[in-house]
């Protein structure tokens, strides 16, 4: 059942671009954003909503989906910081960097994400060099056997922009502009100490839908 | 076809209104799928 106060505000579907050199368990990913705690994914909306949205009954809809795909896994994250993307209907690219935070440095990582990297991402987005940026901690699964415990996410207007990376180009100039009293080398080194990058993947987002009027979370995770 | 079927997901799950939450933080759910080649689309 949906949690009291929870609201689905965004959904998208993405296809992996470079699966890597091992057989990929998944070639598509669906992402949803919720204000509050999400609905238990095992509990489906009522039948009449399926009929209204798709013209199919809930059973017919689920049967059709099962014939097209198998579920390879799912994860839930809580937002740490976010720079909302501009809302457009075009395809875009998402880079997901899975990280494992350093024990006893987790609060440090959160602080750096919010006070150093978020303002930089905000400036890049304003200048059209980045589409969006966000940072999340894993809620489930968690623990040492989980592959990662947080993700850093960037979205890009184009594949070229995604390949260049969000800190590519004249990034040192941006850093100096946004943090004139901070040393970029110190900031990068400190960030590296707070987490280890486990795996990065790139996805092409094929279609997205946002709740009308929704334009990012209040205070954007600050 | 797979994409068209899923486009309705927002309408499906967003149709309800709720009261105040104990945890107002934004959450993301990512679900990974393997879509069979004949349904992948272009």
The mean pLDDT of chain B is 66
Amount of beta strand of chain B = 15-25%
- Gyration radius of chain A (Cα, Å) is 19 Å
What can be said about the biggest beta sheet of chain A? 7 strands, antiparallel
CATH fold group of chain A = Alpha-Beta Plaits
How large is the count of helical segments of chain B? 2
Span between termini of chain B:
10 Å
Quote the beta fraction of chain A: 25-35%
- The CATH architecture category of chain A equals 2-Layer Sandwich
Cα shape of chain B: rod-shaped
Which structural class is indicated by helix and strand composition of chain A?
alpha+beta
Query: Strand-and-helix sequence of chain B, N→C?
Result: HHE
Structure annotation, total helices of chain A:
6
* Tally of structural domains of chain A: 1
Low-confidence stretches of chain A: none
Radius of gyration of chain B: 15 Å
Q: Name the biggest interface.
A: A-B, 60 and 36 residues
Please estimate the helix content of chain B.
Answer: 25-40%
Mean pLDDT of chain A: 89
Main sheet specs of chain B: none
Strand order in space, largest sheet of chain A: 2-1-7-4-6-5-3
């Amino acid at each position: 059942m949906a949690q009291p106060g929870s609201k689905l505000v965004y959904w998208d579907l993405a296809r992996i671009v470079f699966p890597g050199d091992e057989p990929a368990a998944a070639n598509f990913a669906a992402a949803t954003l919720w204000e509050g705690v999400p609905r238990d994914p095992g509990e489906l909306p009522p039948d009449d909503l399926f009929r209204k949205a798709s013209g199919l009954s809930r059973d017919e809809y689920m049967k059709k989906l099962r014939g097209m795909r198998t579920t390879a896994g799912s994860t839930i994250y809580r937002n740490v910081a976010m720079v909302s993307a501009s809302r457009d209907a075009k395809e875009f690219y998402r880079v997901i960097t899975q990280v494992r935070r350093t024990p006893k440095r987790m609060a440090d990582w959160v602080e750096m994400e919010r006070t150093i990297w978020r303002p930089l991402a905000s400036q890049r987005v304003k200048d059209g060099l980045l589409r969006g940026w966000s940072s999340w901690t894993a809620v489930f699964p968690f623990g040492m056997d989980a592959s990662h415990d947080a993700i850093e996410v960037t979205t890009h207007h184009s594949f070229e922009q995604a390949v260049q990376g969000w800190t590519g180009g004249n990034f040192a100039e941006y850093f100096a502009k946004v943090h004139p009293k901070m040393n970029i080398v110190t900031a990068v080194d400190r960030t590296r100490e707070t987490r280890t990058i486990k795996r990065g993947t790139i996805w092409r987002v094929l279609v997205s839908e946002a709740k009308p009027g929704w334009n990012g979370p209040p205070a954007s995770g600050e | 076809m797979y994409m068209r079927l899923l486009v309705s997901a927002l309408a499906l799950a967003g149709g309800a209104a709720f009261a105040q939450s104990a945890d107002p933080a934004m959450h993301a759910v990512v679900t990974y799928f393997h879509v069979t080649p004949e349904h992948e689309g272009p």
